[in-house]
Amino acid sequence: MTAIAPLDRFDTVSIERDFDWLAGLDRALWLPALINSHGALYDRLAWLHHAVQAFNRAANPFAGDINCERWPGHAVSQAFGRVIDRMGLATLVAGQPEWGIQLLRSFLWHLDSLARLAAQGGVDKAIAALVAAFAEQWEIERADLEAVLKVFESLDGVASLARWSEARGVLRSEGWQQVLAAHASLRELPGLSSLIRSLGRRQVADCEHEVRAMRSPRAQARQKVDHTRWQIQPLFRESGEPDGICRSAALERVLSSEWMLSRRQQSDGTRVRRLKRLFSARLSEGTLLALSVRDLERIRLRTPLAVEEDRTHHLEQPRLQQGPIIVCLDTSSSMTGAAERVAKAVVLEAMRSAGRQRRGCLVYAFSGPGQVHRVSMGADADGLIALARMLGNSFHGGTDIAEPIESALADLQREAWRDADLLIASDGEFGVTAQVLGRLRDAHANQGLRTQGILIGDRETLGLRELCDHIYWVSDWRRFGDQPSSGASPVHDSALTRLFFPAASMRAPPVGQNSSGA
Q: Which CATH superfamily includes the segment(s) 181-214+317-516?
């Protein structure tokens, strides 16, 4: 019978030191690392510790400076290492601790079956089967992750494992795929990405300035005489002298003898009634005797014009960019079809740009009165899911832009959105009230707000021109519809109404307002 060693002869410090590798691992790896049946426990913990660090720096943990001979062994390392290199998984999960850990958990899960499969058909066949199953699983995961990378250029915060199944479901929907197709084509339009990148007022643009009109709030309006501009001013002589007698119906000049016809007092009532009827008949015919008065004599003088002095100062200052973005997305029924897909692609590009540069992105999807949907597009899985669900819906309803504009102006009073600019994606089929337009212009003058319009239609409207400082015209928006062959615009310029009917506009557009996306 073997004697049991006394407890004081165990090296407890050495045992605890071996488990130091476990303390350095993420808790999500503890259970699969402890229960795995392949190899020695302490060697496995040490290798996993180095593997996590390798994935963080985009290195393959089955190669390089990590000793894989003790665990998981040369054959396993060679087989899994080749698959990871071929699929580029080390680069894909670099800087994404969650996905690096998930990759190791998957490897441990497959490797746990090695002993069972090796007993049935040999070690080499077992390793080949495990590698094939591992590759098949990660081929699907890699395709979904690369789809996110293609849009957002980074997995930071977007591909969260906590909501990955839900995010993957909405990303595979047909509506989202149509938006991605439109977005891929829309990115080819000249200047669209740089236009969205320039929105916001947080950072100073390099070597770029803009001229802004500034008016002092205490400046008093006053008039001055402009000797370069003249007017014709009529002067009237004193008049009113009688110039004879004429027939007229002007009661103020009727002779008193005519008034006596209606004022006679006689005993014969029949005669009085006849005289009154005679007066009324002459009045209606304009044949009452009346004084003839000389007409007013007019003298035209050419005098200088008094105009209000312009108290606005135009200052050149550095242009600000890369700040928060507030998007007003028109979801009315007039946007259904190709225009809808272009508008959704614009919102996707705005969120993509904001997420890449750590900027805020707020979207107001609006249609009729009371139909405004506010979505805060964070650079995380929640923001991605909210965006995909919103863009997956169809556009219906009327058009009322007053409520989203007022909501956006209210957001500008908050610290997080104080430096935001406004982006309006619409076909321009709406009107603007004077109250909303006045508040918007106050924000332009006092807060430096800039409003960028993206016209997804054939012609600019007065409502869109009144709201926007600049308009970017997506002239070939029809090619994103179900019949892309009919994508050419029927007009040569979005300013068609202004060109042929200049009197239809209340004011001239700012210089350089119209930019074509064709």
A: von Willebrand factor, type A domain (3.40.50.410)
